[in-house]
Amino acid sequence: MLSNKTSKIKEINGLEIIEMKSVSGIKEGSIYLADYISKYKGKKVLDMGCGTGYIAIYLSKLGFDVEASDINKNAIKNTLINMESNEVKFNVIQSNLFSNINNKYDIICFNIPFNMFFFPFDNLLKYYFDKFGLSEKMACLGNRKLSTRRKKFIFNFLKQSTNHLNPNGFIIIHSTCNDVKFLEDKGYNTTLCKNFCGRYGVYKINRRRRNERNNNEKQSLSD
Hints:
CATH architecture: 3-Layer(aba) Sandwich
Structural class: alpha/beta
Shape: globular
Distance between the termini: 48 Å
Mean pLDDT: 81
Number of helices: 8
CATH class: Alpha Beta
Order of helices and strands: EEHEHEHEEHHHEHEEH
CATH superfamily: Vaccinia Virus protein VP39
Number of strands: 9
């Protein structure tokens, strides 16, 4: 078991979830993502960037066929601990986006981390930026260099995800409104599911239309 100095416990929707300090904690975006996906009974779901594993555990409790992944080895450890303590079982995969993912899914969800600017810097820095909300502010208001890096990351995620979606499958993300405007400019069809403070929200994203996909692949990400 983790010590009190390195973790805390949250009780959410009947689950007890341990949050390690080196892992992004559960916030309103994750809670809403899990609740929204719960309407799609019988679907196969990938929880990318699983963090504590909350979304995957919540959906598994409801009978969903779930897999979870994260690039952070501490997140994998955190998810496995929470999976065991909440008495569910599913595949947990350490993966840089889809590098170690082989399956296809009906739904891919991703609570895109605000603190991604600091990868691969130390966990203590990420922890304090998260604690005081600085990661979120930088994601919404960051300078051009940081904004471009974030857009490239999200764009790569969506490009790779097309090989892992079943027919009629979709992606749902928690991200900033600026991120989503960029994706719409690239031809993605987005639907706002929930807005938080006018700066970020939960969005459902469908496959791009073919003609827009071909045209936009030729454009620079820095446009």
